[in-house]
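One-letter codes give the sequence; the fold follows as tokens. Both lines appear below.
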Amino acid sequence: MGLYTYDGTFEGLLTVVFEAYERKTWPHTIEQEHLAQPSMFGQNIAVTTDEEKVSRVWKGLQKKLSVGALKALYHTYLWEQPGFEMLLFDYMKLAIDSKECIEDNYAASCVLRVQQAAKQMFREKHRMEAFVRFQKTADDLYYATISPDFNVLPLIIQHFEKRYADQRWVIYDTQRKYGAFYDLNAVTLVNLESQPDKRTSSAANNIFSEEEDKYKQLWQVYFDHVNIPERKNPKLHLRHIPKRYWKYLSEKQPRLQLETK
């Protein structure tokens, strides 16, 4: 048994699987190299991502698992909850070692937990796709910030790329400090090294075009019209739109004063 460290990538995790089988040394812990604390007991094995080893492991998994199960593995990696590395390792080892398909073997805790994680990711993905609201900057760039419970940004890019193919946009995950930038041709992942301080916050607010207030007003008016008082159901409303998502919704922001002429 040993501590395996890797670079934090999905490919790095697949390399850990290859190394463990090659060494016949199974991990008791897998940690990202910048977070790992050396173990006083057992081996400390630092793994370097190797594309050839990644390919061999992935091809082996493709023979054992369906496309849906392979997606669930990647979604569990993006799930990022404590212990997800060992959960994925246990699942992949079970799949590789078993002669039969393991996907419905819910007696194995790792199979059940991967399915549960994938369902959580699916729900968060669709909520983000529904609740993201863009603001238009003065140079015609549409900008939105998100702070999801899980790392779903890679999963929602395709949705927005198709829906807003004729607009330049950025979706930035403020919690994980990276975003996706679409330039009308392709999507590029971007990082902001630092956040603006208080001295620049007022200047940053001026970057948004005057049209943005009009967009917010339109969303609020639409929401008022479809939100018929006689049909209000607060519990149902909160179940479909939890409060933690309200910060993304224009209709949930303080009312803007309409100009009168």
In short: The mean pLDDT is 82.
